[in-house]
# Entry
Amino acid sequence: MPYTDITADMVKALCPVRPENGHKGTFGTVLIAAGSRNMPGAQVLAASSALRSGVGKVKVFAPSDSMDSTRINCPCAVMSPWGDTVASTLRLYNEVSAGVSACAIGPGLDEEDDRSKALLGYMIETAPLLVIDAGALNIISRDRERYLGLVRQRPDKGLQPAVLTPHPGEFRRLCGRNKDQSVSEFVSENNCIVVYKDHYTGIYDVPGGADVTYRNITGNNGMAKGGSGDVLTGLIAGLLAQGMKPVDAAVAGVYIHALAGEITSGEYGRRAMLPTDMVDFLSEAFFEAGWELE
# Structure
């Protein structure tokens, strides 16, 4: 399939408007459902990236035993713990998600937790704008008929297509027995957008049945470390909350994420750079992308 390479001019033109008289309500609210006792850092990375995106407010909705790291490292985020049961978790989600502009679910989730499974299904059915990553993708792969059916129905319910962000292994699991299915076929079948995270990351969109595929050719292998995807998830969710269309948020998020990776490698080198460093260099990436005034 032919690709459209993402360019600096393309991304600069996608910059969301940021009025001088704006307030935190102007720039949207992100809710991130993420983390678990054994992977609390994932929610920190996603929340930190979302906070750097320019969004007005970030809410972290996560198991209570994963929250300490977020409290320490993300003091600007609003933290809300899950309930002890599925029913109480869904009730609390309804309270916390009121007024939220965009959601993300997946980084660091405990895939065996019934609360994770129930919350994922409910968010697919109700979240106006949604990014699905990591543990949430693996939950989908174990019950493809149920969850992909919900993903497929989102446009029919008046919801924007979900943005799924798998790496190659996660995508193979999403395909199940149909291992030869292409990304474009998967996207067309499931009415979604896929950010296929590989050496050259592709963004697959199927508006009206016509394949549109974007390819990002920036970045470097220093980004190939656990946690980089969590940074991307938070960034895309933050851009969605600021009013960007899902495919535009995916294109811009991937490009700016890669720019941050290039800047980080220039500072620390590809071998030693960390995803946490990339969060810190998002500000420079926005300048380089033309999204900030010098």
In short: Residues 246-268 form the longest helix (23 residues). The domain at 4-15+111-288 is CATH 3.40.1190.20 (UDP-N-acetylmuramoyl-L-alanine:D-glutamate ligase). The chain has a mean pLDDT of 94. The radius of gyration is 18 Å.
